[in-house]
Amino acid sequence: MFELAMSTNNIPILRIKGKIIGNTAVSLKNEIDSQIKEAGTKLILDLTEVPLLDSSALSAIVATLQKLRQTEGKIVLLNPQKSVMNVLKVTRLHSVLEVYDDEDSAIKAFN
Questions:
Q1: pTM (two decimals)
Q2: Checking CA distances to 65, which of 1, 73, 94, 97 falls within 20 to 30 Å?
Q3: Domain enclosing residue 11, as ranges
Q4: Are 40 and 74 spatial neighbours (Cβ–Cβ below 8 Å)?
């Protein structure tokens, strides 16, 4: 479900596979917290293979965003599928979260 990769700039990229709903959102939050604890205040969430997420998943992402902003950190979303992007637009989170279509752009967001 979760796979961690490092960009050429040593920014962790958390690649997520599958739906993020219910208990999976709790697992996502735990994984994000673990990565931030280990790698610091930068994180890219790769949503390329996430066909669906629910309010619990959004809550986990927003909580992380708020936590990272307190330490001048940042979380960005990479390549959300159309259905996920629609959820972000309906909830207006696309205006709060940084969303990128390709990995290079997501990495450059941290410069």
A1: 0.92
A2: 1
A3: 2-108
A4: no
Two tokens at 55? 């309010």
Residues 6+ apart with CB under 8 A from 98: 74, 76, 77, 109
Q: How far apart are CA 96 and CA 92, in angstroms?
A: 7
What are 46-101's pLDDT values in tens digits? 999 999 999 999 999 999 999 999 999 999 999 999 999 999 999 999 999 999 99
Specify the CATH number for the domain of residue 61.
3.30.750.24
- Amino acid making up residue 55: S
DSSP readout, 27-90? Answer: HHHHHHHHHHHHH-SEEEEEEEE---B-HHHHHHHHHHHHHHHHTT-EEEEE---HHHHHHHHH
Give the number of other CB atoms < 10 A from CB of residue 92. 8
For the chain, the domain total comes to 1
